[in-house]
Amino acid sequence: MLHKLTVFAVLFTLLFVVGCGKKRDEGQPPPPPPPSEQRAPEPQQPPAAQPAQPEQKNAPSPGEAKPPAERRAPEPSKSAPRPEGRAGTSATPPVPPPAASKPAPEEPPRREAPPPQEPAKPAPPPAAAKPHAQPPAQPIVLTGAPLGAVRFDHSRHKVDCAICHHPSREPRPASAPQQPCTACHTKPPQAGMTTGKQAAFHNPAATAGTCIDCHKRSGGSAPIKCVQCHKRDNR
User: Greatest CA span in the chain, whole angstroms?
Assistant: First the structure.
């Protein structure tokens, strides 16, 4: 029995020693390798020499942007109020801005006085009307036509006298107001005249002229044929 207890104590002691040794081995760092296995540190190579850069000049290159100019702080306005000073001292009162001057009222434009007008001259007396010859009361007879004479009655022709008795013209001025047509228009025409006796009344075919044109405008019973005016029994 004693022998068993001794053996049991020896085994327990061995187990305890072995367990403590394992715990020590776990807590300690691993032993360093032998000097033969340690590698020599590699020699560090010096850094390669970089090429020397040219010194930068103060003036910027054409491609580079110019540095912005330094902005100066705005100077304080003289009219701005100053801050109050120390306790017990009053600050300088602000200076009020000068009052804007009012524009002077515009003067109304002066009207120039009109130049003195000359007194109106009296109007000349009206010119005396030219006397008009009274038409003959009896019909007149125009002779010399091959088809017969023409009997002209002024009382049947209610027209302006100037249609037939035109104003005086060159190259033969009239010698009297409303003188007979045959006084200037003759057959053959006088020197300087271009209108003969027949042309003063109508053209050779009796289709146009002073008398024919007026008869056509009047219409009605006004004669437009040769035999209605030219008759052999007219005296």
Answer: 217
